[in-house]
Amino acid sequence: MSEQNMNGCEKFESLLEDYLSGDLPRQDAERLASHLNACGDCRQALEEARLSSRLVGLFDRAEEPGPSFTRLVMARVSAAELWLQQQKNFWRPLEALAWRLAFSAALVLVFLFAYEIKASNPEVVPQASGVLVQRADTFVTPAYNSPTNTDEVLMAIAERDHERQ
Amino acid sequence: MDNVPKDVAASATAVALTSRSRAGKADDRDLVRQAQKGVSAAFEELVRRHQQRVIAVVSGILRRREDIEDVAQQVFLKAYVSIQRFDLRSAFSTWLYKITVNECWDYLRKKKVRPLSYEADLSEEQVRHVEQFVSSGADAGNPGERAELREIVDRLLSDLTDEDRTMLVLKEAQGFAVEEIGGMLGLNVNTVKVRLFRARRRLAKNYRRRVGHGRKEK
């Protein structure tokens, strides 16, 4: 199974890997055994794979790091929590101030809007002033045409006598 | 129980979790849910359970003893920060190993180094030593000899791609299953098997080329 001429044997690569790991099902093992009997390239490939297993097997499996590792991790976690809390505490007053400013700005906008509506609708204003004028009229002395000269006095007496008759 | 302060209730939950996990009852999902609620004892238990495997993955990729623990701690810190986003659709270990692999690649990128790279030829003594080990079929002798042989294998592995080398070391040296390796690297199981087998053959060819058998074959 040279890399240039692997077309026929490609399908056996995963089986060979399973065989090396000891995970090959019985049925596949029989199929692979009959192929290996006939294929020198695959037999060589298997030998090469075994050699590399032996070489890489020299590396030791990682050891259990022990409780000190757990303590160090949790110390870093606590430090990170503390930092996050500090960040929150730093921004919290600014956040409250920003909310207050936003509320004040919204209030100002509402007032401005109401003023704008009031200013652009003049019909409302005369109604209110009309009432005021009426009220003012009740306190005003009724119109009274007092005579300004003798002729007017005579005319007024004549009109009064005429009304009586 | 309504009058019990929140922190006391949380610590009671933590004690219960720890005792349950000691008895082997609390599974990872329970612990993750508790950790998502802010129970740090639950996260501590998860660290305790998975630290050995995380260190195995890190040492499979980096294999520089001085960096391994630091990177592994960083992995758990990242897991703690992002545990709220973990939706429990996969196993916690799969999610954690993915973080581990990404953290290792990031670390190598930041450091701008290949994990281990040797271009120089092996000395006559090293060649003799490794040939003797391969042909004898016996275990490497004392720890010193073993360390020397490991250094030679590191040189031979340097011609493989980072991913192939990682797969090979995780499978062969750290004992991970192909399913676990596939989960870490986002590859399906069959692809992992094929790539593993080809990586093995490449290492063997490299051995023959650099140790001397190749010369005889020519």
What does this structure look like?
The complex is a heterodimer of chains A (165) and B (218). In chain A, 75% of the residues lie in helices and 0% in strands. With 165 residues, chain A is mainly alpha-helical. Among the domains of chain A are: 3-56; 85-124. Chain A starts with 12 loop residues before the first helix and ends with a helix. By secondary structure, chain B is mainly α. Chain B has two domains: 6-18 and 26-111, RNA polymerase sigma factor, region 2, helix turn helix motif (Rna Polymerase Sigma Factor, Chain: A); 124-217, Orthogonal Bundle (Arc Repressor Mutant, subunit A). Chain B has eleven helices and no strands. Chain B has helices at residues 6-22, 28-36, 40-61, 65-82, 92-111, 124-136, 143-157, 162-172, 178-185, 189-211, 213-217. In chain B, α3 packs across α5. The longest helix of chain B has 23 residues, at 189-211. Chain B is elongated. Mean pLDDT of chain B is 82; it is low at 1-9 and 214-218. Classes of the chains: A mainly alpha (165), B mainly alpha (218).
